[in-house]
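Re: the request from the purification team.
They wanted to know what the chain is likely to look like in 3D before they choose a buffer screen. I agreed to run a prediction and write the result into the notebook, where they can find it.
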Amino acid sequence: MSRVILVTGGNRGIGLACARAFAADGHRVAITYRGEPPADTEGLLCVRCDVTDTEQVDAAFTEIETTLGPVEVLVSNAGMTADMLVLRMGTEDFASVLDANLTGGFRVAKRAVQKMMRARFGRIIFIGSVVGSTGQAGQANYAASKAGLIGLARSLAREFASRSITVNVVAPGPVETDMFAAVSDDTRSAIEGAVPLGRLATPDEIAAAVTFLASDAAGYITGVVLPVDGGLGMGAT
């Protein structure tokens, strides 16, 4: 069955891989972007939206609903980083990351679930991170935002289960994205060495987990944190 999919922050990396995977499966796919849309937009409805702005979120959903129909599957991927040690981290550095990653996820989920409740069907998938469970020096703001998504997802899962809406988190480890392309060879080797599988994930491997959780086959899975981290977070709770 073809469904209406929204991937926030879908202009590159994990988000774009998810969007393309859904489109390849025949779904009607929209992405949001804050900066520039992807170069290849075939099969994708591209909508400019900053998830830190509630009015922009509502406008984006309205455009998608008018063009494609009500959002049935939401992949909340949009976010940001502002890495630095805590002694150098200002309150704004902390708050801005939480606003984009955690409160932004709340904004889009709240808007999506209104139509999902009426349809008595929905899939919400938050893109978390292994550091939400393990922590990471220099990423107190980012780790806190991703840890918060777990509590948000599980609360929504309990709140909307009676309407057949599932809510889950996919928690990637290090992924081969544009960010890692600029990392030095020594840093890259150290990161890969910390992963039991000895390599970075590809965006497509994260997308595979996301598309599964969005599928009918995953209809009895909710409130789950699914690590896709090469074993990096084993034992973390």
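For the purification team: The two ends are 35 Å apart (CA to CA).
Please add any questions underneath this entry.
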